[in-house]
């Protein structure tokens, strides 16, 4: 799902605060992940391990939002309803 589709979903699902929170936080989490990955290129060897652990942490945050989105879509149905309109 692209960022454009995500923001469209935010527009269409304003009746559901939970999915709105997820859809607002998920792109921010992916941006943080991108920044962490980009930071790897500017490091010396000594700080690589710490930077890599930051990347892994950011990736896990992204995955947790992805999981919440998938579970919410399956269990709550608010996205399906808004798309069907
Ligand atoms: Zn919902």
Uncertain regions: pLDDT < 50 for 5+ in a row? none
The outline comes out as: elongated
How many DSSP H or I helices?
Answer: 4
Structural class computed from helices and strand pairing = mainly alpha
Counted up, domains total 1
CA-based gyration radius: 16 Å
- Proportion of residues in helical segments: over 70%
Average pLDDT taken over every residue = 83
Distance between the termini: 19 Å
Bound molecules: zinc ion
What's the main sheet like? none
Q: Count of DSSP E strands? A: 0
Order of helix and strand elements from N to C terminus: HHHH
Beta content comes to under 5%
What does this structure look like?
The protein has 85 residues and is mostly helical. It has one domain. It contains 4 helices and no strands. Helix 1 packs antiparallel against helix 2 (17-40) and helix 2 (17-40) packs antiparallel against helix 3. It starts with a helix and ends with a helix. The relative contact order is 0.16. It binds zinc ion.
